[in-house]
Design goal:
With 181 residues, the protein is mainly alpha-helical. Helices cover 77% and strands 0% of the residues. It contains six helices and no strands. α1 runs antiparallel to α2, α2 packs parallel to α4 and α3 crosses α6.
Length: 181
């Protein structure tokens, strides 16, 4: 039985390496940048972030940590560093359920914030960061939502072939299958 083509097939290795390096560093930087921007926006309006906004920023940042690990895992795979790729896959697999729990908590807090006080700045922040966290979760563990930065993915989407299964999600499912054996 022949192996399916690599996800890296047909791509210039150096260009792909630059792309993956840029993305894992960008996600890692956003882990702190996103909540810092959220706090700065709230404080500029003389609002102190509340528990709902902080929970949402935490959830979003946790998913960005997972995203940085996923991009770094892909880079390790490209470089042939199977030990690092396996460690990162394992970490992302173990992080899925806790990240989901944090997202559910952030969703409950954001919902309570809106119900309790309407759409105040903290409620907007909580809802916005929670939404970003959910989008990151789906993008990394289920369906690749980000299709605008790769010509291959964009052409696939424009051709009507739908969204691809998330790379990390596939790696985590394969890891879980290997672990059960």
């Amino acid at each position: 039985m022949q192996n399916p083509p690599s996800e890296f097939a047909g791509r210039d290795r150096a260009e792909l390496r630059r792309h993956l390096t840029k993305y894992w560093k960008m996600e890692a930087g956003n882990v702190l940048l996103i909540p810092a921007m959220g706090c700065a926006m709230l404080w500029s309006g003389d609002v102190t972030p509340d528990v709902a906004a902080i929970a949402a920023m935490t959830a979003c940042s946790l998913l960005l940590v997972i995203g940085a690990a996923a991009w770094r895992m892909a880079l390790a795979g490209l470089d042939g560093d199977t030990a690092l790729a396996e460690k990162l896959t394992t970490a992302c697999a173990w992080a899925e359920w806790p990240s989901l729990a944090v997202l559910v908590f952030a969703t409950a807090m954001a919902t309570a914030s809106v119900v309790e006080g309407g759409w105040r700045p903290n409620s907007f922040a909580a809802a916005g960061f929670t939404l970003m966290g959910w989008l990151e979760y789906v993008n990394y563990y289920h369906v690749q939502l980000q299709n605008f930065d790769s010509a291959i993915d964009l052409k696939r989407l424009q051709a009507g072939r739908g969204l691809r299964s998330a790379h990390l999600g596939r790696a985590v499912r394969a890891w879980r299958t290997r672990r059960r054996r």
